Amino acid sequence: MLKNNLWGNLFHKSGNWQQQCASLWAATPLFEGIPQREIHALVADMIPRNYQTGEYIFHDGDQGAGAALIVDGEIDIRSGEVVLAHLGKGDFFGEIALVLDVPRTADAVAVMDTQCIFFLQAELDAWLSRAPYYAGRLSKNLANVLAQRLTLANKALAQRGEGQ
Predict the structure, then answer these.
(1) Alpha carbons 74 and 91: distance in angstroms, whole number
(2) Among 24, 32, 47, which Cα is nearest to 145's?
(3) What is the pLDDT of residue 156?
(4) Angle at alpha carbon of residue 141, lines to 68 and 43, rounded to 5°
(5) Residues 47-87: pLDDT tens digits?
(6) Tens of pLDDT along 92-135?
(7) Residue-level pLDDT at 164
(8) What residue ranges do the domains of the chain occupy?
(9) Are 93 and 85 within 8 A, CB to CB?
(10) How many angstroms separate the CA atoms of 20 and 76, rounded?
(11) Closest listed residue to residue 104, CA positions, set 141, 142, 67, 134
């Protein structure tokens, strides 16, 4: 029987793609100390999304649902016209939404054609029930990431205050 790609599952992700995404997540501080098999199992349920140049991934004020990882491409995190961060392949953003049910605090905009994969808060909650040790490890890693970003933000604000 011939396999007809026209009628194949459009949402089926190849093992290669899943491995690439699992490796990208594993290289982030969020998944430090978490086995590859656990990450691969999580990635199997994640859905990729493609964005065109100039397309918003989310807007300031949108309800957050989870964190995103850049699989390919680049994005800017913006507040108004100010670029807060320029991110590329392997970078993640939006992680506050993994722990707090609050609106987004900035815009995320694709600066070139970009593919992201999302790790939703609901997936973290399910993982916490299924594998509490590893989900707890991720929660600790997430706390470290948020603390580091807060420290950097405090230093930037202090430097801005010194320049006035």
Answers:
(1) 9
(2) 32
(3) 83
(4) 40
(5) 899 999 999 999 999 999 999 999 999 999 999 999 999 99
(6) 999 999 999 999 999 999 999 999 999 999 999 999 999 999 99
(7) 63
(8) 13-159
(9) yes
(10) 23
(11) 67
Which tokens in the block code for residue 26? 């594993």
Q: What is the pLDDT, as a whole number, of residue 14?
A: 57
CATH topology of domain 13-159: Jelly Rolls (2.60.120)
Contacts of 67 (CB under 8 A, 6+ apart): 30, 92, 93, 94, 95, 97, 98, 118, 119
- Name the β-bridge partners of 63: 103
Q: How many CA atoms lie within 13 A of 49 on its CB side?
A: 14
